[in-house]
Design brief:
binds adenosine-5'-triphosphate; binds magnesium ion; Heat Shock Protein 90; alpha/beta; 23% strand
Length: 506
C-alpha cells in the first residue's frame, strides 16, 4: 500500500484534471478536477453520477466511449465535449480515457483539459479573418466602382449644363445623377469598411467632440428616448478624423433608436482605460496600451448570440427591406480598425446592448475644434494645370471640366507622359493634379521626379483610396491637398482653386 503513495501524489497534484469512474459514478477526483468542476472538495464529487457533469447532448458520446474503453482495453482517442460545472456553467474540454484497475475493480481513468478559452480565441480569429477577407473584396469592387461613378456623374453634369431646364431630357438625366449619387454614397461606406477611405485624422478631445455632436444626435433619437451623456474626467486626447467620429456616433445612435420600441434610454460615456495583456484576450484585435473608451448602452431589444456574431459583416441586417442596409456597424468596425482601435459588444435579449469602442491614446495635446468651415472658393481660373490620370475616361472628364472653367490643361495618361510634358512645356505650370495609384509610378513619386527637374509649385492628389502609398491605412498628412473620387465637378473646381490659393510647403 505505502509503495502506491508517491504515484497517488503525482496524480493528485497533476495540473491536468483526472478522475476515475466506476459503474458510472465518480470514485476519485484529483485537485485539478475539483477545481475544474467548481466543487468545494473531492467529497462533493465522489459517488455522484458522472453524466451529471456531462452536457446532455454529449451523454451518448460519453457512454459509447466508456463502453469502448472497457471492452477493447485500449485508450480512447482524445475527444472534445462539453462538461457542466456544479453551478451549471457549461465549458468545453478535451478528454482522454483509458481502462484501469481501481481498488481491484475495472474502471475508467479520464484526463481532461478545459479548452473554453482556446475555443473562444479561435472563434475570434476566425471572425476577424472573415471580416478582413470580406473587406478586401468589398474594397476592390468599391475602387472600380468609384472610377465608373465619377465618369457617370461628370457626364451627367456636363449634359445638365448644356440642356435648358425645360428640356424633356433634363428630368431623365437628373434621375441618372441621383442614382449615381446614391451608389457613390454606398461605395464610400464600403471603402470605409475596407479601411481604404482616405481620411484626415486630427488630434481631438472626445468629450468636446461628442458634446458638439449632441445637438445633432438628439433629434435623431426622438422624444421618447432619454439620452444620458457622461463625459469621463481628464480624458486623454485621441487621433481621429472628425467626420469618422460623426459616423460612429450617428450609426450607433440610429441602431439604439431602432432597438428601442416605445420609451427607453441610451447612455453615452467616455473614460480612460489601460488594457493589459489579459484584457486583450477578451477584446478581439486589441493590443495592450492606453485607450479612450467610448461606451454606448441602450435598454432596447438586445440580440441573440447568432445575430451578435454577424453584426459587423457588411449588408447583415435584421431590418426589413428598405429599412436597413446593414452597413452601419460594418462602417463603424472599419473606422475603428483603421484607427488601430477595437470594438466589443455585449447584449442580452430583452435587456439591452452595450458597445465599447477603444481608441488609442494620442501622446500630444489636442487641437481646438475648428470653429468655421472654409468658404466656398471662387472656382474659376486661368492657371495651367498638369493633370495625370491613367483612367482615360476620368482624364478626359477632368480636362474638359477644367477647360470650361478657364484653365489651361495639359493632360497626361501616365507618369512617363507627364514627365515628358513637364520637360517640353517651357511656360509656367501652376498645379500638378495627379492620381495617387498608377501602375508604373505613384503620384507622390511622380511629384518628386518632376520637382527634381522643374518647379510646379502646387500639388493636388486625387484617389478613390490611398492604400499604402500615402501612408499606411490610408491616413493622409493633414496638409496634403486631396480630392476623393468619385468627385462632383463642384468638388473638383473647389479643390483645384483651394490648392492654387493655399501656400504649400515646397
Ligand atoms: N443597439 C442594438 N440593439 C439591438 N440590435 C442591434 C443594435 N445595433 C445593431 N443591432 C443589430 O445589428 C444589425 C446590423 O446593424 P447595422 O447598423 O450594421 O445595420 P442596420 O442598422 O440593420 O442597417 P443600416 O445601419 O445600414 O441602416 C441590425 O440589423 C440589428 O439586428
Ligand atoms: Mg444601423
Amino acid at each position: 500500500m505505502t509503495s502506491e503513495a508517491p504515484y497517488r501524489a503525482l496524480v493528485e497534484h497533476s495540473p491536468e484534471a483526472a478522475y476515475v469512474v466506476r459503474d458510472g459514478r465518480i470514485v476519485f477526483a484529483n485537485a485539478a478536477a475539483v477545481r475544474m468542476f467548481g466543487a468545494p472538495s473531492a467529497e462533493a464529487l465522489l459517488g455522484t453520477d458522472v453524466l451529471d457533469r456531462v452536457h446532455p447532448d454529449d451523454h451518448a458520446l460519453a457512454l459509447e466511449r466508456r463502453r469502448l474503453v472497457l471492452a477493447l482495453n485500449v485508450p480512447a482517442p482524445l475527444v472534445e465535449m462539453r462538461f457542466v460545472a456544479l453551478d451549471g456553467r457549461v465549458f468545453e474540454v478535451e478528454v482522454q480515457a483509458t481502462a484501469v484497475e481501481f481498488d481491484g475493480v475495472r474502471a475508467t481513468y479520464s484526463a481532461a483539459r478545459d479548452i473554453s478559452r482556446r475555443k473562444l480565441l479561435e472563434e475570434q480569429v476566425r471572425q476577424s479573418q472573415k471580416l478582413e477577407a470580406v473587406g478586401r473584396l468589398a474594397g476592390g469592387i468599391a475602387h472600380d466602382f468609384n472610377n465608373t461613378l465619377a465618369v457617370i456623374l461628370g457626364h451627367a453634369e456636363f449634359a445638365l449644363q448644356e440642356l435648358p431646364p425645360e428640356h424633356p431630357l433634363h428630368h431623365d438625366i437628373r434621375a441618372i445623377e441621383r442614382a449615381a449619387q446614391h451608389s457613390a454614397a454606398l461605395t464610400r461606406q464600403l471603402l470605409t469598411y475596407a479601411r481604404r477611405q482616405t481620411v484626415s485624422p486630427r488630434s481631438l478631445d472626445l468629450n468636446e467632440s461628442v458634446t458638439a455632436t449632441m445637438r445633432m444626435l438628439r433629434p435623431l433619437l426622438g422624444e421618447s428616448i432619454d439620452l444620458a451623456w457622461s463625459p469621463g474626467e481628464g480624458l486623454w486626447p485621441i487621433t481621429l478624423d472628425p467626420a469618422q467620429l460623426d459616423q460612429i456616433l450617428t450609426n450607433l445612435c440610429a441602431n439604439a433608436r431602432d432597438a428601442i420600441s416605445g420609451v427607453g434610454r441610451l447612455s453615452i460615456a467616455t473614460s480612460n482605460c489601460t488594457l493589459n495583456a489579459a484584457d486583450c484576450l477578451q477584446i478581439p484585435a486589441s493590443q495592450p496600451g492606453d485607450y479612450v473608451r467610448l461606451r454606448f448602452t441602450d435598454d432596447g431589444s438586445g440580440m441573440s448570440a447568432e445575430t451578435r456574431s454577424m453584426i459587423f459583416e457588411p449588408f447583415f441586417t435584421t431590418k426589413g427591406l428598405g429599412e436597413g442596409t446593414g452597413l452601419g456597424l460594418s462602417t463603424v468596425y472599419g473606422i475603428v480598425r483603421q484607427n488601430h482601435g477595437a470594438i466589443t459588444v455585449e447584449s442580452t435579449v430583452g435587456v439591452g446592448t452595450q458597445f465599447d469602442i477603444y481608441l488609442p491614446r494620442r501622446m500630444v495635446r489636442p487641437e481646438p475644434v475648428a470653429a468655421s468651415a472654409p468658404l466656398f472658393p471662387e472656382s474659376t481660373g486661368s492657371e495651367t494645370i498638369l493633370v495625370v490620370e491613367d483612367q482615360r475616361d476620368i482624364l478626359m472628364l477632368t480636362r474638359r471640366a477644367l477647360m470650361k472653367r478657364g484653365y489651361t490643361v495639359l493632360a497626361a495618361d501616365g507618369p512617363e507622359q507627364a514627365l515628358a510634358i513637364a520637360r517640353a512645356h517651357p511656360a509656367t505650370i501652376d498645379l500638378l493634379l495627379t492620381d495617387v495609384m498608377m501602375p508604373t509610378m505613384s503620384g507622390p513619386d511622380l511629384a518628386r521626379a518632376i520637382a527634381a527637374e522643374r518647379a510646379i509649385p502646387r500639388l493636388l492628389f486625387m484617389s478613390g483610396f490611398s492604400a499604402d502609398l500615402i501612408a499606411s491605412d490610408g491616413l493622409l498628412d493633414a496638409d496634403t491637398q486631396f480630392l476623393g473620387k468619385p468627385f462632383t465637378l463642384a468638388e473638383l473646381f473647389s479643390r483645384v482653386r483651394t490648392s492654387l490659393d493655399t501656400p504649400q510647403p515646397v
